[in-house]
Amino acid sequence: MSDSRRYLDAASAAPLHPVARQALLAALEDGWADPGRLYGAGRRARLLLDAARESTAECLGARPDEVSFTANGTQALHAAALGTLAAGRGTTFVHTAVEHSALLHVAEAYAGPTVSVGVDPLGRVDVEAFVAAARNSAAAAVQAANHEVGTTQPVDAIAEALPGVPLIVDATQTLGHADLPAGWSVLAGDAHTWGGPSGVGVLAIRTGTRWRSPYPADDREAGRTPGTPNVAAIVAAAASLRAACAAQATEAARLSALIDRVRTTVATTVPDVEVLGDPVGRLPHIVTFSCLYVDGEALLTALDKRGFAVSSGSSCTSSTLQPSHVLVAMGALTSGNVRVSLHHATTEADVDDFLSVLPGVVAEVRDELGAAGL
Questions:
Q1: What is the Cβ-side half-sphere exposure of residue 27, based on CA atoms within 13 angstroms?
Q2: pTM score, whole prediction
Q3: Which residue in 59, 245, 291, 316 is the catalytic one?
Q4: Annotated catalytic residue 291
Q5: Which residues of the chain have pLDDT under 70?
Q6: Cβ–Cβ < 8 Å for 206, 186
């Protein structure tokens, strides 16, 4: 079985969608030139870029002139937050405690006051608590759904209760997998989470939203993102997003059923395990569980030896070897946690194979750590 079939870490980077591969190869032939030039090759590149923007905007429920492309999802999140704060009428930046590390790093660097609003044990923020904190803020950030445990957030309810406050929404794990909330002011996405190529982020800013570029002046992408855009990669990203959105309902049902199987089977076959996140109000393709008496790195290494790629620790800061800030905020077990995230090429057999191997691997790691008898 190929690595791609046993690859269960799509939330980090999904395998390239076949549509993206085809579009990328075609665009490399016609979209290699600078789209800002007026000669023939430049105009062809510009036509491809404009078509990709229109296609992406349609999937987002936005206008084409509201959509810009960045180098990745992290840059999109940075630009979303920094630009909104730069143009804000207030001074305070409010965010949930479980936002992606890219937004938390913005909060750390921000010169003004910040407020982190906690979440419940399922990973969901309370609407009243968030609204109370954000009512007079310069900007507020709440993700569409959590990148580690999949729990969806009440974005629309928060937006309705905060008229006039710019709402920054991280949709990096939602785009192409589930319906977007309608209440966003500024939205960020990342192509490699829906099967597009790495190196393409999406920044969408609703008309009328106060936003000012945090970068030196540049005439690219309506002045929102500096530098020449990677037209071929953007075309591939747009094509794969359109394909993902077209198949979203069918794929969501298929992957959600597989995730339900993981949630149920892990809880009944692995002793001392906690399955995390909301079992119902969640993304269809992500589940995280934590195993007591197990080192996460050792568990991932043992699974990798058997051909399964999953993630552990904080999915956005795993290289730091620090406990997941998401799980800490939820009050959940932070040791031995595993995130399984599925994609368009994941099969029922892949999930069954993983579930058949997992109990033995956990027992083996516990035995090696001397924890089997605890």
A1: 27
A2: 0.93
A3: 316
A4: no
A5: 1-5, 313-321, 371-374
A6: yes
